[in-house]
User: What shape does this take?
Amino acid sequence: MHQLPRHDLTDQILSEASQRSNRRRKEDLGQFMTPVAIAGFMAGLFSAPKGPVKLLDAGAGVGSLTSAFLERQLGVPTEVVAWEIDPLLRHDLEGVLKSSRSRSNGLRAVIHGSDFLEDAVFTLTMGSHPSFTHAILNPPYKKINARSPHRFLLRKVGVETVNLYSAFVALSVLLLGSGGELVAIIPRSFCNGPYYRPFRELLFSHCAIRHIHLFESRSKAFQHDHVLQENIIVHLAKSEKQTEVTVSTSYDASFQDYTECRFRFSEIVRPDDPERFLRIPASQYLREADLPFGCSLHDIGLEVCTGPVVDFRVRTYWRERPCTGTVPLLYPHHFAGGALVYPREKKKPNALVLNSSTQKWLLPRGFYVLVKRFSSKEERRRVVAYVLDPGELLYPYYGFENHWNVFHLGKRGMDDLIAYGLATYLNSTLLDKHFRIFSGHTQVNATDLRTIKYPDRDTLRSVGARVKGLRLSQQEIDSQIRRTH
Assistant: This one.
């Protein structure tokens, strides 16, 4: 039988392991496997070693990352320390490392079947942790409950975070020696949002960011596992002074259309930003992330919140269709083609009973601007805004379901012209380009919308007066916003 080349052998093991491991098990463990092409790209980001290598691979899976790293470093004395909690994957990992050991003189490898998070915290609290020279990671993606044992353990070593992927990266950074390097493929969600601020601060205090790689297509990077999250590759250097950052892009894991550009760190993390958000330009043409407006939401007298109604909590009061004693419960599907469609036949209810138990979650009749919290990356715009006109919905209160962001004026409706001007601005290409730099993940958070700069009230009213009652094309929306600056 013809022997497969090393890359083909690893890819075959990866594919077979992915097929054996059902999706429910992957979701329980929070782990998805790294395609060989991506593993090779990640391994190529490291600098040439200046001495013996001690490599950390936490959540190693079948070993595609470690295997790619070893292929790059043939002849360099290397010790691999890997963690893989799944016994099926660990068996495949042993086979891959055995194959690599036969090709690499002096390779030593240790595989742990225990919980990396627990082991790392124990090692760090003992005060004499090993100094890894390199770490390569595709960590598990799974939320950490605020009261879970993992959260408690992480706090022992000063790590405050909400997901296993950021916990694995944080612990790996702490386990690296000075001058050590880490390359990881992780969700882009850590780049902004308040929950990841402590994680961002930890990265910036310990490391310099050397390289960030973006994939234009979410669906192509992890074809074995059908992962739809937006993932990025980051290359960090511990205890290194921060200089320029290389930002590269490719459509998918083939890297055939690979391009890169260098940016000042201040263009990615602004010195005056207290949240320390990462704004990642996709190319040199998107270098300018600033908007030509200077008002905060507070300046224009508005606020934004997540839709107050969490539907399953008020299930008792659901009604399939509006009837006497009910008010609308509005979901994103109630807007189609920019227009309100109410009621609408879906699996979800159209109305809520109005009583003392539900009223605290409702907002009074008025003009509101609604922005969907979730969109697909491939949608034309990341931010999609609608105006709720009370003339179209003659009820005393409205229920806005949790999948909305709701712009309001002190928990009441706003001026109609402000509403139409604001929605036009939010739907503009100008704002969309800014937001795609500012926020890579497909969830649009209220926090994100609070940090954006807006036109002043007079400008919004002027735009609103010109567009109210019209159905505008994207070109017409953009023309209206260009007139304001």
User: Anything to note?
Assistant: The longest helix spans residues 87-103. The CA atoms of residues 186 and 231 lie 5 Å apart. The chain is about 30% helix and 20% strand. The longest strand covers residues 176-187.
